[in-house]
Amino acid sequence: MRFLATFQTYDFLDTLLSLAVAFVLGTLIGAERQYRQRTAGLRTNVLVALGAAAFVDLAMQLHGADGAVRVIAYVVSGIGFLGAGVIMKEGTNVRGLNTAATLWSSAAVGSCAGADMIAQAIALTVFVLAGNTLLRPLVNAINRAPLDAKSSEVTYYVRLTVSPEVVPEMRERLQETLEAAKYPVGDVEVIEQSDTQQEIVATLVSTAVDPKELDAVAARLEAHAGVRNATWDASTKD
Length: 238
Description:
Layout: H1 2-6, H2 9-35, H3 42-84, E1 88-90, E2 93-95, H4 97-114, H5 118-133, H6 136-144, E3 155-162, H7 167-180, E4 185-194, E5 197-204, H8 211-222, E6 227-235
Antiparallel strand pairs: 1-2, 3-5, 3-6, 4-5
Helix pairs in contact: 2-3, 2-4, 2-5, 3-4, 4-5
């Protein structure tokens, strides 16, 4: 049998050590994810780390460092497809990005273990756990902070609900009023809501906005005949 002829005890022990390290470190990362009831939990992170370690170790034994580098490139892209499976879009909200990034990091840990870079794998695991635990209070504090409309990077929209017969006039007047207030318009769109009502939406060029000034602009526009409602809103979504 070819197995008996090619079996090397040292190589086998080296592979066993790489897989064991990947298993232990993947367990640490996965346990934190499992505790928080994430989609990709304990077993998923362990299997990702083990699989990455196995592929890299196999390449190391067959083709040395050059082979390992090529395999690592494929591991990175392959985990990208796996991570896409845990990302879910619910309306305008996207969930699972952190879980996908953690899977990606688990693959990096496994790759380090497979390449016999044990210390680097341990260090990376510490940083991954720190990112998912120690940074959580900072994230919560930032999320609770009030949004500064002047300094935040958001897209602003000014919306007019008008009668169909005044659409051409109010579309032009909307743009003129905003530019007079030093708010350049990037795009103006007309949305037909019904036979008796249409909406004109002006998208402002990215700039610092004073909410009070936009409120005043909306009030002036709402005073025109045929304008049923004038308002503005902001979106932080790209």
